[in-house]
Write a structure and sequence with these properties.
Blueprint: H1 19-36, H2 41-48, H3 52-64, E1 68-70, E2 86-88, E3 94-100, E4 104-111, E5 116-123, H4 129-141, E6 148-155, E7 158-160, E8 165-169, E9 174-177, H5 179-184, E10 191-195, H6 196-207, E11 216-221, E12 225-231, E13 234-235, H7 266-270, H8 272-280, H9 284-292, H10 296-320, E14 324-328, H11 330-334, H12 336-349, H13 356-359, E15 360-362, H14 370-385, H15 387-398
Parallel strand pairs: 3-6, 6-10, 11-14, 14-15
Antiparallel strand pairs: 1-2, 3-4, 4-5, 7-8, 8-9, 11-12, 12-13
Length: about 400
């Protein structure tokens, strides 16, 4: 973003020269405070490799707009002036997340530290995609508060980030849905859209324990299957953000056909509801509840599904060769034998993964918040990428200048 002059919640002006560099450095400091704070200015200076004067200048802006806050001073056992620790102020900024699943939408509100403050499911009415999104967005508009700075929209399938549209969601039968425009009709704030698996990748790297320098492969298994890849501190999207489509990987049951006419596809074999109805003639949620309650037959079915997930994971691991593979799948999250089965398959089938017990783990986002977090993190990733620009854009939208 090119900076000329901006007013952001009490900041009279952003430096007119070197604005891009100023914004980038400010974002670096905010992310460092999020990951390692509370930290003194001196500690932040050492951590990010900036001079003390530069840290003071940038943190002064972040303090003035409220994204950072000073914590209680500590002397650390030494005489002299205390070092005042700085930390991210979670109440300074909130975002709304809108996740679009198979049977319902999820609206969530998250603070600046990624904590879900509130969420609600909105059952779909009718079958028209535009009407469904419009209705969910209208409900989400009721949750906008003065602290709300952006909206993140996430769903499965192929999402074109730049165009702000859902290109195709084959299992829902949706195509060419202008998600950003539909939501923006109801909410006068910046609206960011992305695939939900990339949203979860952002959640892990911002608010989880993923090393920012590690390469990561993220595998999502639900009613849809998707993957995301991060290398060099950046999530790979590819042309029109089409990266991560793995529904037709030929690792599934060859007797099962998919809607596109193929057989043995990954998604058609393991997708939540279709799988549960096929193997147990019940809903996925009832089968999961039985497995968590200790039902041996239900647990065995989930472990068998996990082995199929593990076969796909091994194939993808060899393609990407990541430092870390994260699997977001409810069996792996709630049933220890499922994660063990995935690790075993990766260990036996992968050529390059020598230590799956260290390189393969379950997703860190709580399963009760996973949909809302995926959408909220789409917006929060933009805030942390350019906090000054994000707040300026939010103010501009509220004033009707966009």
């Amino acid at each position: 973003m090119r900076w000329d002059r901006a007013t952001i919640a009490g900041v009279s002006a952003i430096p007119e020269h070197g604005g891009d560099r100023f914004a980038s450095s400010t974002a670096t400091l905010l992310r460092a405070a999020l990951r390692h704070g509370p930290l003194s200015r001196r500690a932040l200076s050492r951590l990010v490799g900036m001079s003390g004067a530069a840290v003071t200048r940038h943190t002064a802006v972040l303090l003035e707009i409220g994204l950072l806050q000073e914590k209680q001073s500590e002397l650390h056992g030494r005489a002299g002036r205390p070092h005042v620790p700085l930390a991210v102020n979670p109440q300074a900024c909130s975002v709304i997340g809108i996740h679009l699943a198979h049977e319902f939408g999820t609206i969530a509100v998250a603070d600046l530290c990624g904590q879900i403050i509130d969420q609600r499911r909105i059952p779909y009415q009718g079958t028209d995609p535009a009407a469904i999104v419009d209705a969910v967005a209208a409900k989400a508009a009721e949750w906008v508060r003065p602290s709300t700075r952006a909206v993140g929209v996430a769903t499965g399938g192929w999402v074109d980030v730049d165009a702000g549209s859902l290109v195709a969601h084959p299992s829902l039968g949706w195509q060419s849905v202008p998600l950003r425009d539909l939501v923006a009709r109801h909410i006068p704030l910046p609206v960011y859209v992305d695939n939900h698996t990339r949203g979860l990748m952002h959640a892990e790297e911002l608010f989880g324990d993923v090393d920012p320098d590690e390469s990561v492969l993220y595998l999502f298994v639900g009613n849809v299957v998707d993957a995301a890849v991060r290398t060099g501190r950046a999530v790979h999207r590819g042309p029109r953000s089409g990266a991560g489509a793995i529904a037709h990987l030929p690792v599934g049951d060859p007797d099962i056909g998919c809607a596109s006419g193929h057989r043995g596809c990954f998604e058609a074999t393991v997708s939540d509801q279709a799988w549960a109805h096929r193997v147990a003639a019940t809903s996925f949620w009832d089968l999961l509840a039985a497995a968590k309650a200790g039902d041996a037959t239900a647990r065995a079915l989930f472990v068998e599904r996990a082995r199929i997930v593990g076969r796909a994971a091994a194939l993808l691991f060899d393609l990407v060769n990541p430092d870390l593979l994260i699997v977001a799948e409810l069996g792996a999250a709630d049933i220890p034998e499922c994660l063990d089965a995935i690790r075993t398959e990766v260990g036996e089938r992968s050529v390059v993964c020598s230590a799956p017990e260290r390189s393969v783990r379950a997703g860190g986002v709580p399963t009760s918040h996973i949909l809302g977090s995926s959408a909220a993190s789409v917006a929060l990733a933009e805030v942390y990428s350019d906090p000054l620009g994000a707040l300026a854009d939010a103010a501009s939208h509220r004033l009707g200048r966009n």
